[in-house]
Design goal:
A 6-stranded mixed beta sheet has the order 1-2-3-5-7-10, sandwiched between helices. The chain folds into 2 domains: 196 residues, 2-enoyl-CoA Hydratase, Chain A, domain 1; 48 residues. By secondary structure, it is α/β, with parallel strands linked by helices. It starts with 8 loop residues before the first strand and ends in a 20-residue tail after the last helix. It has 11 helices and 10 strands. Helix content is 43%, strand content 15%. This is Enoyl-CoA hydratase-related protein. It comes from Streptomyces coerulescens. InterPro entries: ClpP/crotonase-like_dom_sf (IPR029045), Enoyl-CoA_hydra/iso (IPR001753), Enoyl-CoA_hydra_C (IPR014748).
Length: 274
């Protein structure tokens, strides 16, 4: 494990999988600016680490993330120009969506408000039987924040998204699985272990380059037409056929052996300060 137990997000390497744990269990891992900075910095590091091929995110204790810390929310109405300028300099809140590598959620308890948004930023979500979801936004006088009004209807449908956003009602694990908030429900055992096993399978069997491209297609094609999607896919397929990953993938299948795909190239230059 990397770091110390008192860090706001704890990083643990499990082979090619990096496990990131929100670590404010006494507060159900309520979100703070400091926790966000630590989480995003670790995602940045994972992006450029060739030994990390997938990331699992979870929460310590009984919760995934209970949303924004209410003490910080209390101060929002008193925000002065200096604090507003500081927030403007921060990275976009939806930064996890830009990660090229698979981001797998292991929802071990309540995911509320901003915590639910962060769970929806994951590519795939595993949940324990104690997983719970609530938007809670209207109950706090807030609005559908940070893209949840775009993400949620695409997962559960317009009418259900409207229900969840307006009412802020609590959704239990079984309903979450049924309507699409969860992709996998872990009725027994450790939800983190199940998510790590899935992520490790992606890391060892799938091309990092292919997965990064597919994630990009899903994001781009969501706002376009079917014809646009087909046209882009044809261009990307030609690029894939010219690459080494197709050769390796086919050879590994025919030779009945694990593939040896290369890692993604870094996105940040080592000589450029970040």
């Amino acid at each position: 494990m990397t770091g110390t137990p008192d860090e706001l997000v704890v990083a643990e390497h499990r082979g090619p999988v990096l496990v990131l744990t929100f670590n404010r269990p006494a507060k159900l891992n309520a979100w703070t600016d400091e926790l966000e900075d630590r989480y995003f910095a670790l995602l940045d590091d994972a992006e450029d680490d060739p030994d990390v091929r997938a990331v699992v995110v979870t929460g310590a204790g009984r919760g995934f993330c209970a949303g924004a810390d209410l003490q910080q929310l209390k101060a929002v109405g008193e925000m002065d120009e200096a604090l507003a300028a500081d927030r403007a300099r921060r990275r976009p809140r939806d930064m996890p969506l830009t990660l090229r590598k698979p981001l797998i959620g292991a929802v071990n308890g309540v995911a509320a408000g901003l915590g639910m948004v962060e769970a929806l930023y994951c590519d795939v979500r595993f949940g324990s039987t104690s997983a719970r979801f609530t938007t809670a936004l209207a109950q706090r006088g807030l609005i559908a924040e940070y893209g949840i009004s775009w993400l949620l209807p695409r997962l559960v449908g317009h009418s259900r998204a409207t229900d969840l956003l307006l009412s802020g009602r609590m959704v239990d694990a079984e309903e979450a699985l049924r309507i699409g908030l969860l992709d996998h429900l872990v009725p027994t055992g450790n939800v983190v272990d199940a998510a790590v096993a899935y992520a490790a399978d992606l890391a060892t069997r799938c091309s990092p380059g292919s997965m990064a491209t597919i994630k990009g297609q899903l994001h781009t094609d969501a706002g376009g037409t079917y014809a646009d999607s087909v046209a882009r896919a044809e261009s990307l397929m030609l690029q894939a056929f010219r690459g080494a990953d197709v050769v390796e993938g086919v050879a590994a299948h025919l030779e009945k052996r694990p593939p040896n795909f290369p890692s993604l190239p870094p996105v940040r230059s080592a000589d450029v300060p970040v």
